[in-house]
Amino acid sequence: MTTLVVFTVVDVLLLVAGLAFYLYVVGTQLTRIAADLEECSEIVRRILANAEPIMPGLEQINRTGGVVAGALPLLYGMAEGIVAGATYAPEPAGTPRPPAAPASGRRRSRLHETVGYEPVP
Hints:
By secondary structure, the chain is an all-alpha fold. It has a domain at 1-68. It has 3 helices and no strands. The radius of gyration is 42 Å and the shape is elongated. The mean pLDDT is 85. This is DUF948 domain-containing protein. Residues 88-121 are annotated as: Disordered. It comes from Nocardioides mangrovi. The chain crosses the membrane at residues 6-25.
């Protein structure tokens, strides 16, 4: 019966040691979490302090946003009309194309001005 008592005492000691280790690990993790939460709390306080000057202007910002949001359907309709009017429609095949003209009109040489000659208009 002495062996049974010794094994029981050792078993209880191992159980207590395991629980103590578990509580130590959980305690250190909770301490780290508490430190992180404290830091987050400080960051939130700083954000709130930085946002204090903006608060009075929020009503104006929201009002302007409401006006813009109200105008979006009208703008969308106008954009649809522009896109419908500007959509490219290819010419039927076999239609002869006129020669391309320069976009800027007739080109004028400036070489005369560089040598001092000015033609009479």
